[in-house]
Amino acid sequence: MNALTTMMALPLIGSLLIAIIPSEQVLRIKQAAFITTLLVAISGVLTWIKFDSANTALQFVESAKWIPSFGINYAVGVDGLAIVLILMSVLLAPIVVLAGWNESEGGRWSPKVFYILILVLETMMIGVFAATDLFLFYVFFEAMLIPVYFLIGGFGSGERAAAAVKFLLYSLFGGLLMLASIIGLYVISGANGGHTFDITRLSELHTYMSSTT
């Protein structure tokens, strides 16, 4: 399995394991969440070590057809910036788990829900930085809003319900604008060599169109 896919899969597997632990076993839930994020962090560090900074091409590339009729693929890969952002995310996750060790028990829901949301959010964040298909990026970006919404609404302070709703509405509005832009790029690519959501090909198309105008 690709290193990036492994990093995305581990938090989801951890969240499923936590889901079957009884809610009363709070310590086991916390330990499972911490161990999961620690494993993801180790995987991230190992991936960063293997990354060739002298190579300007995308690395750890993986691609599989997802919705072939629209040219949508599960495609991931990283450049120098993406690998740093992923590394920062996976290193922060264990810190977040430790920081919420006691705070997670003061929310509307059980600590079990808190740690499941944190792990799902970690997967989505890695996906956002690793996606090389624009539609896949959009899916990860929008899906990331769901655990954040519930974290704010369930474990925030003060007017957390209102804050969660405002966050969701503003983010969805921005997401609609992003979706319109993505569809626009898809249409333009179709008029210039074939419809695609591939970020590399879209970048090359932008360079080509800029050089011909």
Gross geometry: globular
What is the H/E order?
HHEEHHHHH
Overall pLDDT score: 88
> In whole angstroms, how far apart are the ends?
43 Å
User: Which blocks of ≥5 consecutive residues have pLDDT under 50?
Assistant: none
Gyration radius from CA atoms, angstroms:
19 Å
Share of helix among residues? 55-70%
The number of helical runs is 7
Number of strands: 2
Q: Order the strands across the largest sheet as they lie in space.
A: 1-2
Q: Classify the beta-strand content into a percent band.
A: 5-15%
Largest sheet: 2 strands, antiparallel
- What is the domain tally? 1
Instruction: Quickly give the structural class.
Output: mainly alpha
Structural summary, described in words:
This protein has 213 residues and is mainly α. It is built from seven helices and two strands; from the N terminus they run H-H-E-E-H-H-H-H-H. Strands 1-2 form a two-stranded antiparallel sheet. A hairpin with a 4-residue loop joins strand 1 and strand 2 (72-78). Helix 1 packs antiparallel against helix 4 and helix 3 packs antiparallel against helix 4. The radius of gyration is 19 Å and the shape is globular. The mean pLDDT is 88.
Concise account of the structure shown:
The protein has 213 residues and is mainly α.
Main attributes of the structure:
single chain, 213 residues, mainly alpha, two-stranded antiparallel ribbon, 69% helix, 8% strand
Describe the secondary structure blueprint for this structure.
Blueprint lengths: L2 H17 L6 H25 L8 E9 L4 E7 L1 H20 L11 H20 L3 H22 L4 H31 L8 H13 L2
Antiparallel strand pairs: 1-2
Helix pairs in contact: 1-2, 1-4, 2-3, 2-4, 3-4, 4-5, 5-6
